[in-house]
Design a protein that fits this description.
By secondary structure, this protein is mainly alpha-helical. 58% of the residues lie in helices and 6% in strands. It is globular.
Length: 453
């Protein structure tokens, strides 16, 4: 694959990917983000055109670019500084929101708009105008990259152009670090601050903006340092306006082959993809895509896709749950699935395991003294409700107070019963139940002196 096809392909995808974030930020009236994305759009368009026209071997015989290159070289100067200014503006706004010291102006207020435009566009516009003073030739044409600005290698180029990219990148880095510091200090109140300041941001949007700023700074800050150092190495001589703008040299179009594309092309592509992955794949962007598809009549396709996704997700979750439930049931059977025999009563603990619905508690049968007979029979009659499960002998000798433990499926906490007066359970002559033998139901011995007291 040639450099030409690579540049055109990557820049075309980057160009398309920038439109959804641009539409969202336009809707949100986020001026710095709109300006930054606009710079990237312009740079991707120029890279596509330049690669398409001046990438072949005979690029020197191609169009000389008059008119187009006069305009593009100014935009290149502005974009290199403008991207750093826009990122700095975003971090500045995030810092102001988190500080919450003053009432923030509305997004459509004149003060807010003027502040954003001043930070994002004043320096790039000024440098674009000053670049005329620095041009040695009208412009140059490089293979793969097309139109290039050829500036005077003097100290005035450093002062009027190169150092501003480094300054704004440094300021953006400082504000990004301040945002992190304030965020850490107020981390427990960030959600409330974002809501109360009417910033239009939630925690997710705030995090995306901050992450985006850090990534762009990590790209632009080293780039600005490299450009600044390279410019300082080439500084020589003094500046002379007449010598720089000699009439016999001004209309000469310099064409040269650097052998490979200038690295700035890949930086623009990288930043474009970062913009899309951070802002183009969020919940807000996905809702915007859904609304657009429904608007153009593709809502049925979207509904079908959502149904398939939900069905596949449900199937995966169902399989996982079945595996987990099956494993749990097997473990429960291994632990609780044994069968015991107590006093000729076949008793299976699996009937009352934690994995079964047949949870039971131990209750006690009291004498009928002082109680309503109907309510007593409804509540304390184990031989009607539990006769199928347990073969109790109705002729049990229950002692003086006639207490008897039995199994019930429900316990009413309104009828809490003291266990202080419980007696031991005596077996009858048939030997069905005996206090000397172990049973699955615990029995208690009443103190012998309780009646005397």
């Amino acid at each position: 694959m040639t450099y030409k096809s690579t540049i055109i392909g990557l820049c075309s995808l980057a160009l398309i990917s920038l439109f959804p974030p641009l539409a969202w930020h336009t809707h949100s009236r986020n001026i710095p983000a709109i300006i930054l994305i606009t710079w990237l759009l312009i740079m991707n368009i120029t890279c596509i055109v330049n690669a398409a026209v001046w990438s072949d071997i005979d690029f020197m015989n191609r169009w000389d670019g008059k008119g187009w290159c006069d305009f593009v070289i100014k935009l290149q100067v502005g974009a290199n500084i403008g991207i750093s200014c826009a990122v700095t503006n975003i971090t500045f706004n995030l810092h102001q929101i988190l500080k919450a010291e003053n009432v923030l102006p509305e997004s459509n207020s004149i003060k807010k708009i003027c502040t954003d435009l001043m930070i994002s566009l004043f320096t790039p516009t000024a440098v674009m105008g000053f670049s005329y003073l620095l041009q040695v030739f009208r412009y140059g044409i490089a293979r793969y990259n097309g139109c290039q600005n050829l500036l005077s290698p003097t100290w005035i180029t450093t002062v009027l152009y190169t150092m501003w990219m480094l300054i704004w990148s440094l300021v953006g880095t400082v504000y990004a670090c301040l945002v992190l510091y304030v965020f850490y200090k107020k981390r427990k109140d960030v959600r409330d601050i974002l809501h109360c300041t009417n910033s239009g941001l939630n925690l997710t949007r705030f995090s995306r903006l901050l992450t985006f700023c850090f990534i762009i700074i990590l790209v632009m800050f080293p780039f600005s340092i490299f450009t600044f150092v390279q410019d300082l190495r080439q500084v020589s001589g003094s500046y002379d306006f007449k010598g720089t703008h000699a009439k016999e040299l001004w209309d000469v179009i310099i064409k040269f082959d650097p052998g490979k594309p200038v690295y700035s092309v890949w930086l623009y592509v990288l930043m474009s993809y970062v913009v899309f992955f951070i802002f183009g794949l969020g919940t807000d962007a996905l809702n915007m895509y859904s609304s657009f598809l429904r608007m153009i009549g593709l809502g049925s396709v979207l509904d079908y896709a959502n149904e398939r996704i939900q069905r596949n997700r449900s199937n995966r979750v169902g399989k996982l749950l079945r595996k987990l439930v099956g494993k749990t049931d097997n473990q429960a059977t291994e632990v609780y699935g044994t069968t015991e025999h107590y006093n000729d009563i076949r008793f299976s603990p699996a009937l009352i395991t934690p994995t079964s619905n047949n949870h039971v508690t131990v209750d006690y049968k009291f004498s009928k003294e002082g109680r309503d007979t109907g309510a007593y029979n409804d509540r304390f009659n184990p031989f009607e409700e539990n006769a199928d499960s347990f073969d109790f002998d109705k002729d049990l000798e229950l002692g003086n107070h006639n207490f008897m433990p039995y199994i019930t499926k429900e316990y009413n906490f309104l009828d809490d019963i003291s266990l202080d007066d419980l007696t031991s359970l005596k077996g009858n002559s048939n030997g069905h139940v005996s206090s000397e033998k172990k049973s699955s139901f615990e029995t208690y011995e009443r103190s012998a002196t309780s009646d005397d007291d």
